[in-house]
């Protein structure tokens, strides 16, 4: 079962029932990159996150909401994660993607919003360009929080490091698409079987695909017309595949 809303997360979240979801897994615009305020304002998400790649990848649609400065990002993400907390049942888990630059401010936002920070998971990306004279940037991070106390009564033991490559070529439908195999399919295991997963920044519907494939329900929100259409078609296809 899935629902996909088209609109701004901060407008749609207040319309969802309180305590109605078991897990939130989300990949918000990172608002990362750009050494100066001017670079941040003037670079699009695509300028920042798509380098190289095939013609298919270069033709992918841009998205908005990635030009906030650090104070704006903290305020906006705190408000959004606060709305998520209202929608989450007590004990629910929150997983928020970030990169190395934005991990500190993302953990601040998570706690300002009232979530209890439980740790940081690592997404290792096996395919990354070497960096002459320095270290490869071949990891992103997933900040983990709970709505109140951590409940350790479920018999699940999940890893803290995930190694998986971003979809490439024709498999790539979004400029910052996350992989299902080896990443989202593992992360959704934090949601009790048959529970509901929410992603307020659904993009191409990756979290939704992982949730539906593992017999969880899914609620998504996506602002862009283009990506809302892609996610809708993708989720309809997954739902109709036995
Ligand atoms: C980092 S991408 C998510 C990509 C997704 N994880 C995937 O695998 O396809 C963030 C998405 O949030 C959407 N977005 C940006 N601002 C938004 C807002 N205020 N409300 C809802 N969605 C928003 C963008 O259009 C973009 O598709």
UniProtKB/TrEMBL annotation:
Residue ranges of domain DNA methylase N-4/N-6 in the record: 21-232
Region (Disordered), start-end ranges: 27-50
A Pfam family per the record: N6_N4_Mtase
Organism whose genome encodes this protein: Prauserella salsuginis
Composition bias, Basic and acidic residues: 37-49
Superkingdom of source: Bacteria
Family: Belongs to the N(4)/N(6)-methyltransferase family.
Protein name: Methyltransferase
Keyword annotations: Methyltransferase, Transferase
Keyword Lyase carried by entry: no
Enzyme kind, highest EC tier: transferase
